[in-house]
Amino acid sequence: MPSLFNKQINILIVDDEESIVEFIKMGLEAEGFTVHTAFDGNEAIKLAQEVSPHIIILDIMLPGINGYEVCLEIKKFIKTSIIMLTARDDVDDRVKGLDLGADDYMIKPFSFKELLARINVRLRNSFPELADLLSIGDFSVDNGAHEICYKDKLLELSPTEYNLLKYLLINNGLVLSKSTILENVWGFDFNGEMNIVEVYIRYLRDKIGDKDHNIIRTIRGAGYKVAIQ
């Protein structure tokens, strides 16, 4: 399932260890984030002013200006969440970082899975409006506005069509049975015919021009799948 936060999110990684930077960068780009990198404090401050990152992953021990000073300076001019990622695990170091404006603190060595979870927490807390936006291929979903665009064109969808298409999109790559779709789109108490799913799939295919069923695929004996790279 794709992240609710994706390529619209700018993340700045600041660390003088190139191997760590590349490891984090590769993982975050695979999740769909836009990633920027800096290897010293001055470069980090300059880049932060240019790209206004939503999240900054910041080491403390940096050439020139250390991470504490970088954190203090950046917090003066942009809204961002800073996760300090450092080998310094002393309680006083953590307290100092948090007192200077850091939003979270992780110790090396670290788990990328945990770092990703903390990034998503910070995004939900600091930028809740972005959780309503989702981009998958040529589709963009605005949950707040209850709208879906395809190839930059707004689709005219009924509430049920919207809910069905959104459900298919957020489960991109997964095969969904008719019963699963019914439970999640129509609800557990739906008493109508199961073929209602087929009817609405046909409506959606017509509206997005999917004549060859390349976007919404029928998986014989299993259900339906959206497969978008």
Automatic annotation (TrEMBL):
<dbReference type="Pfam" id="PF00486">
    <property type="entry name" value="Trans_reg_C"/>
</dbReference>
<feature type="domain" description="OmpR/PhoB-type">
    <location>
        <begin position="131"/>
        <end position="228"/>
    </location>
</feature>
<dbReference type="GO" id="GO:0006355">
    <property type="term" value="P:regulation of DNA-templated transcription"/>
</dbReference>
<dbReference type="GO" id="GO:0000156">
    <property type="term" value="F:phosphorelay response regulator activity"/>
</dbReference>
<dbReference type="GO" id="GO:0032993">
    <property type="term" value="C:protein-DNA complex"/>
</dbReference>
<feature type="domain" description="Response regulatory">
    <location>
        <begin position="10"/>
        <end position="123"/>
    </location>
</feature>
<dbReference type="InterPro" id="IPR039420">
    <property type="entry name" value="WalR-like"/>
</dbReference>
<feature type="modified residue" description="4-aspartylphosphate">
    <location>
        <position position="59"/>
    </location>
</feature>
<keyword id="KW-0902">Two-component regulatory system</keyword>
<dbReference type="InterPro" id="IPR001789">
    <property type="entry name" value="Sig_transdc_resp-reg_receiver"/>
</dbReference>
<dbReference type="InterPro" id="IPR001867">
    <property type="entry name" value="OmpR/PhoB-type_DNA-bd"/>
</dbReference>
<keyword id="KW-0805">Transcription regulation</keyword>
<dbReference type="GO" id="GO:0000976">
    <property type="term" value="F:transcription cis-regulatory region binding"/>
</dbReference>
<dbReference type="Pfam" id="PF00072">
    <property type="entry name" value="Response_reg"/>
</dbReference>
<dbReference type="InterPro" id="IPR011006">
    <property type="entry name" value="CheY-like_superfamily"/>
</dbReference>
<feature type="DNA-binding region" description="OmpR/PhoB-type">
    <location>
        <begin position="131"/>
        <end position="228"/>
    </location>
</feature>
<keyword id="KW-0238">DNA-binding</keyword>
<dbReference type="GO" id="GO:0005829">
    <property type="term" value="C:cytosol"/>
</dbReference>
<protein>
    <recommendedName>
        <fullName>Stage 0 sporulation protein A homolog</fullName>
    </recommendedName>
</protein>
<comment type="function">
    <text>May play the central regulatory role in sporulation. It may be an element of the effector pathway responsible for the activation of sporulation genes in response to nutritional stress. Spo0A may act in concert with spo0H (a sigma factor) to control the expression of some genes that are critical to the sporulation process.</text>
</comment>
<keyword id="KW-0597">Phosphoprotein</keyword>
<keyword id="KW-0804">Transcription</keyword>
<dbReference type="InterPro" id="IPR036388">
    <property type="entry name" value="WH-like_DNA-bd_sf"/>
</dbReference>
